[in-house]
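ok trying again, last paste got cut off:
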Amino acid sequence: MSTTTAIPGPAKAADDAVRPSKESVLEPKLIPSLGRARAFTARIDQRSHDDPGVRAALRRGVGKDLDAVPFMHRFVASWLTDDQTRSRDIQRAFYTVASLIAAQRRDQYAAAKAATAKKEQQPKDEAEQPPTDAQPEGTEATEPPTAKRVPPRSLGHAFADGVLKGGQGGGLREASAETRLNLLTRQSVDGLHRHLPGAVRQLRGCDVEIDWAQLLIDLCHWRRRSGTVKRIWLQDYHRTLQKDGERRARENDDDQADADGTDGTDSPSPEA
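nice, full thing came through this time. structure:
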């Protein structure tokens, strides 16, 4: 009796096979642009500075889960697109950054610094104005100059700035800053959100500026592109410190050259 061997057909996909979720497919399109991120963080900064109620509501969200911050929705939800509301990571990034901005000291808000600068500038402007308040007929008021485009700065830059402030007092020790930064770069999404408030408190406690918009974008990218973000943070940290070291070395060389030149001028010339 002859037997025939059955030829196996194409394998069927398992019912429980892992398929990419709609969220993971759409995620790259959900990342806010730098301009949108700057508009959001500037608005949160302004409202936190101007309204104690807003400030209190937002800062209560530090370190909390999305489902535990109903008091923040009024100020953050309108900035999310319909697609972004389907991504928990994107929402979490917006809410985390908003709470961290609000948790600053009131004098550290960008709005507070802008108001102080405006007050300091007013006496100068009044002194430079002509005695009469009337402007010549047919002339228009001069528009304020366009704000300079500030390049994005990563959290690695911020930690390096903290170390550099150490030389002026009140900064971070290099070992402490590097340890904290390395700890952040080893975290998962949940771990990063858990450790970030402490890192931000450390930086802002030394009056180190943080680019909130870039931090927002980095948090949005963390699950899919954490390797790239980590590399940028660490590179920016070490490159910033290295550049400062090279600058100091050049200044020391220039000072030494000036001192040698002065000594040579004052010393008597050898007799023939």
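cool. Residues 212-266 form the longest helix (55 residues). DSSP finds ten helices and no strands in the chain.
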